[in-house]
Specification:
There is one protein chain. The chain is 21% helix and 29% strand. It has 89 residues and is an alpha+beta fold. It has one domain. The longest helix is centred in the C-terminal third of the chain and has 19 residues. It is flat.
């Protein structure tokens, strides 16, 4: 990680990438009389030139899938010769 780092908490965590974007991850809970809704939010902020960022709300399973794919891609980036059979990569 680069830039300002903050350990994960119940409130979330964020860091700044080497290209200057702040990525924030938080848990969003919406109170509903019938069924509470919880999502993991991913907020990728503006780029250095002020270009727009993006935002996503993921279910817990989707967040786990994203984490798995990100970790696999990080491993490939560190070891470019490594091959994978994972269809999601």
């Amino acid at each position: 990680m680069t830039g300002q780092e903050r350990p994960g908490t119940a409130e979330g965590a964020s860091f700044v990438t080497s290209c200057g974007r702040r990525i924030a991850v938080k848990c969003l809970r919406l109170a509903s009389p019938e069924k509470p809704i919880s999502r993991v939010t991913l907020d990728v902020g503006q780029d250095r030139d002020g270009g727009p960022g993006t935002w996503a709300a993921l279910t817990a399973d989707e967040a786990r899938d994203l984490a798995r794919v990100l970790l696999a891609q990080a491993s490939l980036a560190e070891h470019p010769g490594r091959m994978t059979d994972d269809p999601l990569l």
